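Hi D.,

Good news: the full-assembly prediction came through. Inputs first.
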Amino acid sequence: MASSISEIVDNNSRLDIWVDNISVKTSPNRSILSNISLEMKRGEIIAILGQSGAGKSTLLRTMAGLTKPSKNRVLFNNIDLFSLNKKDKLLLRRKIGYVPQQFKLIKQLSVFENVMIGRMGYLGTISSILRRYPENDKKIVLDCISKVELTDRQETVAKRLSGGEQQRVAIARCLAQQPSVILADEPMASLDVSLAEDILEILNSENKKGKTVVFVIHDIEMAFRYAKRIVLVRDGQIISDRPCKEVDYNTIKAFFS
Amino acid sequence: MIITQLKHSLVRRAKSIIIVVVALAIFSWAFAGIEFTFDRVADGVPPLIDFLYDLYPPDVSIAPTLFESAIETIQMVLVGTVLGTLLAIPLSAMASSNIAPRPLVMVARTYLMVVRTIPSLVWALIFVITVGLGPFSGVLALTFYTLGYLGKLYYEAIESIDMDTVEGVVAVGANNTQIFTHAILPQLVPHIVNNFFFMIDYNIRHAAILGLVGAGGIGFYLFLYLQSFNLDKVSMALLVLLILVIGFDRLSLEVRRKLIQ
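Then the structure:
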């Protein structure tokens, strides 16, 4: 179903993602992803599993519009990000929430400022340069900081945070975007078990509000607990894509060992 | 096997010898050009002693005039360095190959290179001709010199920043200005602060030389006394300059410590 960009950027928009037979190459002879097709319906929650170097992160980056496929395209409600003009591209980007694997926070800025970066797509240039943020945006940012339980550290500079805290700031930054899609690359890699569950609960509750959630994960048990569908990636190709109830836990475990 | 290893080690040694011989040849060639003789050095010692003797004692009576002109130098340096830095920041962004389009990078880099190639003394001469004698032409000279120098240092700093973190800001739909102010600038601040104070220190000494062409400040008096061989006054001017440099050095150390946690 084709959408216009104005429908997509609406606050309550829901997005389907269609990875349309894409390939990603770093050089003419080296492929990271080969002929990957994946259809994600609005409101789905999907786990991507695979060993290190399988191409999971590249797949997520390509879906986030940070890597351009060398063949074919990724569509959001039938719209290709790379076909849009500059202004519409920014509008679509703000609806795609991406949590990178290594947090990618601005280490010199405070927790509050880092989470406010999630609001950049909504803010005017002048107000962001002057760092005079509208009350509504401040409220959204503070809510997101509170969701990841960092309210007492909101003024702390990111470089002084632990790995787990930085991970939570990255999640809060993504939530502050109020995205329609959340793409999270190992969102619980630096967290202990209870915090990891908290983060996956947050993603789960965002999914229940209608957001499409895709997360890369190493923990098979967690993948089974939170995802409705499991995608297995090996050597840049999808080798299995099924609903959780159709996947055998032991087969996946064997795949990893 | 052993023969191959031996061959490799001989080739390596031969290469090292060739490099040393070539380096020595270049140095000898350069040395030949400076017309050095031990006689000239020996002949120069008595006049040097006379010169040093004449420098002492410094003429304290001119201290008030010199301190007044030193304040003018400080003002020149502050205004020139701040203006140069403010101009260098946007220009360095345009000259950074990791964030600006290639044609803009070429234009900005060529411009910075031309500005940097012209020595500050020549800048001062140009502005003395265009805006007349005095500190204003000195300020303009320092502004352009600072722009050329810091522009290069800043674009090199931008090119070395962590682009992965910048990507995190691109992903949220930030526009180019927001990317610069929220992802690049915060990483640049330590470079900007450090190089700004380095430039202040450098410009204080440079401002003294600018006096040679009448561009105001303490340098004007320094060259006036040098030309009239009032060496006791020259030593007083040098003393004031030394106090100025040491004072700024201490001050910049404190400010840097406070600004960069």
